[in-house]
Amino acid sequence: MTIESAYSEIISAIGEDLSRPGLRDTPLRAAKAIQFLTRGYQQDIDDVINNAMFPSDSEEMVIVKNIELYSMCEHHMLPFIGKCHVAYLPKGKVIGLSKIARIVDVFARRLQIQENLTKEIAEVIIHKTGAAGAAVIIEAQHMCMMMRGVEKQNSVMTTSCMLGAFRSSQNTRNEFLSLIQR
Ligand SMILES: Nc1nc2c(ncn2[C@@H]2O[C@H](COP(=O)(O)OP(=O)(O)OP(=O)(O)O)[C@@H](O)[C@H]2O)c(=O)[nH]1
Ligand SMILES: [Zn+2]
């Protein structure tokens, strides 16, 4: 079954008239949309990074904060939306700035829970850059909690993953936390 025909069935099953003009092209449109929202499954991390690693003597913390994040919860297939803060401690090389946001998207554009998304981003950053540490914090709101279910509009879920020096050194962790709060 194609995604398009699956959407046709869903639209019929909810009692709608698939032949009315407004819905005629909807299964195809919706199929394209869900493929975009889950395109992370088709992406390869090394292709995304595209060798954008540059030698550097700097061992100072690099932080990219407020990366906007759109993902889909794996329980309800509804969006969760928020921001992601990423940091790492370079060791001999730095990664192209945009690639950090691209890595976030590779994992966000899948069916996810926020905890796993946070961990997957941190693990790839540390493995691909050989950094002395990596840290990721995600703050997000889940449509499955807002539009339906418990219907809470203001709760924000915060998750973090601290690896390497961010886990072992409280000073490093505090530096990261104070810099993202500024
Ligand atoms: N830990 C975690 N839970 C999530 C995430 N996204 C959605 N959930 C939760 O997944 C749970 C699924 O619970 P179920 O009881 O199986 O599903 P449900 O009956 O639709 O639950 P309600 O949302 O409470 O109505 C809910 O508590 C959701 O809030 C996430 O990223 N992380
Ligand atoms: Zn959900």
From TrEMBL:
<dbReference type="GO" id="GO:0046654">
    <property type="term" value="P:tetrahydrofolate biosynthetic process"/>
</dbReference>
<feature type="binding site">
    <location>
        <position position="76"/>
    </location>
    <ligand>
        <name>Zn(2+)</name>
    </ligand>
</feature>
<keyword id="KW-0342">GTP-binding</keyword>
<dbReference type="GO" id="GO:0005525">
    <property type="term" value="F:GTP binding"/>
</dbReference>
<dbReference type="InterPro" id="IPR020602">
    <property type="entry name" value="GTP_CycHdrlase_I_dom"/>
</dbReference>
<dbReference type="GO" id="GO:0006729">
    <property type="term" value="P:tetrahydrobiopterin biosynthetic process"/>
</dbReference>
<keyword id="KW-0547">Nucleotide-binding</keyword>
<dbReference type="GO" id="GO:0005737">
    <property type="term" value="C:cytoplasm"/>
</dbReference>
<dbReference type="InterPro" id="IPR001474">
    <property type="entry name" value="GTP_CycHdrlase_I"/>
</dbReference>
<keyword id="KW-0378">Hydrolase</keyword>
<keyword id="KW-0554">One-carbon metabolism</keyword>
<feature type="binding site">
    <location>
        <position position="73"/>
    </location>
    <ligand>
        <name>Zn(2+)</name>
    </ligand>
</feature>
<feature type="domain" description="GTP cyclohydrolase I">
    <location>
        <begin position="3"/>
        <end position="180"/>
    </location>
</feature>
<dbReference type="GO" id="GO:0006730">
    <property type="term" value="P:one-carbon metabolic process"/>
</dbReference>
<keyword id="KW-0862">Zinc</keyword>
<dbReference type="InterPro" id="IPR018234">
    <property type="entry name" value="GTP_CycHdrlase_I_CS"/>
</dbReference>
<protein>
    <recommendedName>
        <fullName>GTP cyclohydrolase 1</fullName>
        <ecNumber>3.5.4.16</ecNumber>
    </recommendedName>
</protein>
<comment type="pathway">
    <text>Cofactor biosynthesis; 7,8-dihydroneopterin triphosphate biosynthesis; 7,8-dihydroneopterin triphosphate from GTP: step 1/1.</text>
</comment>
<dbReference type="GO" id="GO:0003934">
    <property type="term" value="F:GTP cyclohydrolase I activity"/>
</dbReference>
<keyword id="KW-0479">Metal-binding</keyword>
<dbReference type="Pfam" id="PF01227">
    <property type="entry name" value="GTP_cyclohydroI"/>
</dbReference>
<comment type="subunit">
    <text>Homopolymer.</text>
</comment>
<comment type="similarity">
    <text>Belongs to the GTP cyclohydrolase I family.</text>
</comment>
<dbReference type="InterPro" id="IPR043133">
    <property type="entry name" value="GTP-CH-I_C/QueF"/>
</dbReference>
<dbReference type="GO" id="GO:0008270">
    <property type="term" value="F:zinc ion binding"/>
</dbReference>
<feature type="binding site">
    <location>
        <position position="144"/>
    </location>
    <ligand>
        <name>Zn(2+)</name>
    </ligand>
</feature>
<dbReference type="InterPro" id="IPR043134">
    <property type="entry name" value="GTP-CH-I_N"/>
</dbReference>
